Amino acid sequence: MIMAFLELRERLLVKNQNTSGTDQAHILVVDDKEMNRDLLSRRLRRSGFVVSVAVDGQDALEKIKRADYDMILLDIMMPRVNGMEVLEEVRKEHGVNDLPIIMATAKSDSETVVKALKIGANDYVIKPLDFNVVLARVKTHLAMSRSKKEKQRGGFAKLSDSGQFQAVSSQQYCPGCRSSLQGPPAECHVCHRDRPSAGWPLVMNSKFPHLGQTIGDRYFLNRHIGGGSVGTVYQARDLDINRQYAAKIISLSDPNVGVALEDLRERTTREVEVLSRLSNPHIVKIYDVLVVQDDVYALLLDHVRCHSLASILERAERVNVLKALNIARQMAQGLYEAHQMGIVHCDIKPENIMIEMLPIRGCFVHILDFGVAEILGFQPKQNTYYGTPFYSAPEQFKNPEAIDHRTDIYALGAVLFHMLEGHPPFRGANAFEILNKHLTNDVPRVTAAGFDGMEGEFLHDLLQKMMAKDPGDRFSDLSGFLRYVDAIMPVFTERDRALKKK
User: Fold this and answer.
1) What is the domain range of residue 366?
2) Has residue 376 been placed in a domain?
3) 217 is an active site residue
4) Whole-prediction pTM
5) pLDDT (tens digit per residue) in 394-438
6) Neighbour tally for 33: CB within 10 Å
7) Count of domains for the chain
């Protein structure tokens, strides 16, 4: 009888809310313990909210189908349908900004917390509940949800290139192009793949945990681009100005990352300020840093629509000498300006070099991840180092105190060798073997290009000078490399013309 009275009272409250035009939020409290439901719902009502209750997960799902709620407070351990199952079902139809869900449970282990957040919980509070904390979080998530809905009404939720509506939160994705979807569409709006017979897969079951999320209350992660040694990159759309960025999501728990959370903002602010002064168009700039979770954050970068040098080499194996020298020359132009400002890249490799094909002919080089090493404080610890073995200078793993701009010159030489020969200068069965060859072996000669005599010597001398074991034996800076390349380019240009005449 009491339960029936409470249900009737809740319906009347909702009706009064709708007819009076007030802005009270309607909250659904889901808990199988009557005392917990009663206490929490009464305190929320006294705080000005309209509250409904559900006695378990099954009851909650039925009520969510029949009525609209502004928020759900959800227990986990319940009979019939538990809270995790409710969360998963709700997220198939409602995004994280459309219907915020706060888990209110006694389960405090980190595995359960992480799982709930991955499935799509907005927040997590532990029983016994501190009501003041609960109330603060309820108000925060309701305000965020309303802000997102106002932006949608203002037209800022049209995120896809096709102009079709894309929600500011999404739990499904296309496995072909790894784009988030507002489901369930009949075909992907990006690659036009038909919906699978089993339906679109869920983000929570994928390797792209942040896909379909909005970070910083502004940037929607609408497509997974790729990953690297540190971080995962998503295409991000600015909901305010509809501009496209690349968002590199990095976890501070990654063993390669050597900066504490408390130092992150100061270091990043300083580095972004320095990088913003770089005017060289060959460097992909960092615009902002955003905290995604306590130990996860994002760098907002220029989004470059082109192919990585790594993918080009994978398909073509080698690059002709003139194109290789041109690419290396453009890389040097970007690196030199940064070196003059005291910034070292520390991870030059084909994956971090993007090649944009120009409309008529030629190509333009973009260097990725500039400044990330400085921001994250990548410093080798005992028996560890940050870098990529195929292109690492000896000092990166032998004497990290000696790392400076000449470390990038060595890596640029290793990348140039790869472009000319079709593989990195040193190969081995494992990273230790490769790194040991950087320490002990002479730089191999380039043979695949078929150069001999003077032309072959020019290339060999250039690579030896760039990849000398001792940094003091390398070019003192990249202006020396540029002068050398400018001097030998006419020789290879003339050779190319002669071959074309035959």
Assistant:
1) 307-501
2) yes
3) no
4) 0.61
5) 998 888 888 899 999 999 999 999 999 999 999 999 989 999 999
6) 13
7) 3
